[in-house]
Target: DMT family transporter
Amino acid sequence: MSPLVKGALLLLLAEACFAGIGAIVKFTSGTASEVQVVFFRNFFALLLMLPFLYKHGFSLLKTKRWYLHLSRALTGIVSMYCFFYVLARLPLAQGMLVLLLSPFIVPLIARFWLKERPSRLTLFGILLGFVGVMLALPANYGSAEAILLVGLLSAVLVAVTKTTIRYMSDTEPAVRIVFYFSLLTAALSAIPVPFYWQPLNNQVWLAFVAMGVLAAIGQLAMTRAYAIAPASDIGMWTYSSVIFAGLFGYLFWQEPVTMAWFAGVLVIFYAGYITTRQRLL
Model:
């Protein structure tokens, strides 16, 4: 299996996990504060990473690029706050679509930072993906401009985070990257928790544990994907999250799935297909 195909499959797994996290965020938003959601997402993900620390020993923590780990944690946590804010206020599929702006930004950042030159077909795929997102958006999408601006900020920060992973992956293994991300985001997000604490029921606690599991799996899969394949070539597969989000939204909240949404999804996946295929030929 080529690195590009393997990277695309890992990214599909990661996006399924992230859509699942989105569904859990929406489920818990009526009971828990956004500060609690962000903290417990990172805390339980950190707990699941501790066995890796035990397996690898403290050698896992040895790094000369701590500044990149800290930078990624800062952009990641701000992106989480923004994204969870959006998910709590929009239908799941609509909220996930906001985040799909990030694949448009990744090749631009990779071009100037990593000197990765996207081909004309990749650029065409990005444009086609943009058309697909526009088709999939609900007709009333423009009625929440402030929320969409927060979502746009989240998308930009996600693109920076993904490109950072690619930049540091030449010396930093995936497990170390994810462990430091979990550790630093858990520590940073713990600071405001006492000021925004709300009582939680058993269902919410179970949901938080599940969110930590999905976060750990998703982060490992995404980190490994961007470590073995160029960000500008597999970033298009981030669009797959809209499929999972639409499915979860329909199953759990009976959110409508329109023909326009299906048409947009088909265009999005075709854009990802031609972008990947041209690298295999």
